[in-house]
Specification:
Ubiquitin-like (UB roll); 434 Repressor (Amino-terminal Domain); 3 domains; 3-stranded antiparallel sheet; 6 helices; 6 strands; elongated
């Protein structure tokens, strides 16, 4: 059985000087085009305590174990004001929807909802707001179901024609983001 990580040698100085400490921790992230500093006042981390340890970066002396990563993730969602993966999954299940059904209703692409529910990526603030509306407003789901679904097709001239409920909107290919 492997020894706990704090009982292993420091990868920078090679000494048996790692220990668990509780200290303030901060991390800078970019979300929705904005730089945010996530602060946790009392995060339990594993740190090299050798005063002679000279890492290239101060963060090289710190190890975040699984518990620290989970705590940091929870704080990140809270401080960004986003629904957590657990909240998204619980609300979707409360509505009796599969991931695919909710994804289709919200017009999401790919596996966005799956990635949000697994915590692989953070949802944008605008899509978080849309999720909150869908989860809390009684008329949101029927309204979303009633919205026409835009279908894009390329015509013979290379232009994209988006057909949304009978109304046809033309875009030149260079300007189009939706290419069929």
């Amino acid at each position: 059985m492997a020894r706990p990580i704090e009982q292993r040698r420091c990868h920078v100085c090679g000494q048996m000087s790692r220990c668990r400490v509780v200290e303030p921790y901060e991390e800078t992230i970019t979300h929705d085009g904005r730089t945010c500093v996530i602060r946790v006042p009392d995060l339990e981390i594993i740190r090299c305590t050798n005063p002679d340890c000279r890492p290239q970066q101060p963060s090289d002396m710190i190890i975040l174990d699984d518990a620290a990563v989970r705590r940091l993730d929870a704080e990140t969602y809270r401080q960004l004001g986003l629904l957590s993966p657990q909240e998204i999954r619980a609300q979707r299940e409360r509505l009796g929807l599969t991931q695919q059904e909710l994804q289709d209703l919200l017009r999401l692409g790919g596996n966005s909802l799956s990635r949000w529910e697994s915590g692989a990526i953070y949802q944008s603030r605008s899509l978080d707001t849309l999720l909150r509306l869908a989860f809390t407003l009684p008329d949101a789901l029927p309204t979303l179901r009633a919205l026409p679904v835009a279908r894009a097709q390329r015509d013979a001239r290379g232009e994209v024609r988006s057909d949304a409920g009978g109304e046809s909107v033309e875009h030149h290919v260079d300007d189009a983001r939706c290419v069929g």
